[in-house]
Write a structure and sequence with these properties.
alpha+beta, Phosphorylase Kinase, domain 1, Transferase(Phosphotransferase), domain 1, six-stranded antiparallel beta sheet, three-stranded antiparallel beta sheet
């Protein structure tokens, strides 16, 4: 039986096309939810324009063609359409240096567009790949990790205060700007908890960064889900690659073994924080972004000499000097 050829992704809008008063300069990204462009506003400001155009539900033959949605997919398309619009409304209320700013949102061409600040920089993923390739003893210094994630958590804390979740935190969605600012971007999987009543469309998964509850329909998703992803991102900065996929039965054992290999390179406090954030049971994770921030501001222990170091066991209590700090993780 001959397989049907893979479906072509929707065509991007051409350079020079004007939508909502914004002139398209070029396509700069695409994903499951749509296409991102660099554009220029009516006042001449450079912006990023995000177009809702899910490849699984819609098609566009060429840049000047209309959006086509098959009849049996229209209901799902409209649900996503409304969710994308609500995402724009919610994010427009958040003004924070560590969260991408939504400047405007509008409907046109039977779809929705979000207008965001255009940020110059590179993703944390790019920095991890570059640093890991240098074959240094550490991928990132602990001080760098602490400083970077203090900024990320400042932004995420504000997101949670607005009753929103990100649900797709990963190194590729953390932008390090040219002025050394860490910014959470791409809220394509975000949902407004207040208006959705805690019910979510099926989220998109990123193996290694998606919490176990995201793989099981009916499991509660909340701030603890984003906290799992934060732990996974810190792990990646320490190891240079993603943690094991939570969907695999042996993922926790592998994670504990990988973290134990870091003994002597990073403080027991930072290692324990990663394991706590990535607990399989959400109730065992830090209960808020603030609790994770507090741990990151505590001074690390002095490095243990290899001959004095005891084998690190993820299930054991922290050393006496760290027990007070560990209570912040409960």
């Amino acid at each position: 039986m001959t397989q049907a050829p893979p479906k072509a992704p929707p065509a991007a809008l051409p350079a020079g096309r004007v939508v909502g008063g914004y002139r398209i300069v070029q396509q700069i990204g695409c994903g499951g939810f749509g296409i991102v462009y660099r554009a220029v506003s009516p006042t001449g400001q450079e912006v990023a324009l995000k177009e809702y155009l899910p490849a699984a539900l819609a098609s566009r033959a060429h840049g000047d063609a209309p959006v086509v949605v098959e009849r049996h997919k229209r209901a799902l398309y409209r649900i996503g359409f409304r969710s994308f619009l609500e995402e724009g409304r919610a994010l427009a209320q958040i003004v924070h240096p560590n969260v991408v700013s939504v400047l405007n949102f509008f409907q046109e061409n039977d779809t929705v567009y979000l207008v965001m600040n255009y940020l110059q920089g590179a993703s944390l993923q790019q920095f991890i790949v570059t640093s890991a390739s240098l074959d240094h003893p550490k991928v990132f210094r602990e001080s760098t990790i602490r400083s970077l994630f203090d900024e990320v958590l400042r932004g995420l804390r504000v997101v949670h205060q607005h009753k929103m979740l990100h649900l797709d935190i990963k190194p590729g969605n953390i932008l390090v700007t040219d002025d050394d600012r860490a910014v959470l971007i791409d809220f394509g999987a975000a949902r407004d908890v207040l208006h959705q009543g805690g019910k979510f469309l099926q989220p998109m998964f990123t193996p290694g960064f998606s919490a176990p509850e995201m793989y099981t329909r009916g499991k509660a998703i909340g701030p603890w889900t984003d906290i799992y992803a934060i732990g996974a991102c810190i792990f990646s900065c320490m190891k240079g690659y993603p943690p094991p996929d939570a969907a695999k039965a042996d993922s926790r054992a592998k994670l504990e073994s990988m973290v134990s290999d870091l003994q002597g390179k990073y403080s027991p406090l930072l290692m324990e924080l990663v394991l706590s954030c990535m607990q399989t049971d959400p109730q065992s994770r830090p209960h808020s972004v603030l609790s994770v921030q507090k741990v990151l501001t505590l001074p690390p222990q002095a490095a243990l000499r290899p001959q004095d170091a005891q084998p690190y066991q993820a299930t054991q209590f922290l050393p006496d000097a760290l027990r007070a700090a560990s209570r912040l993780l409960r």
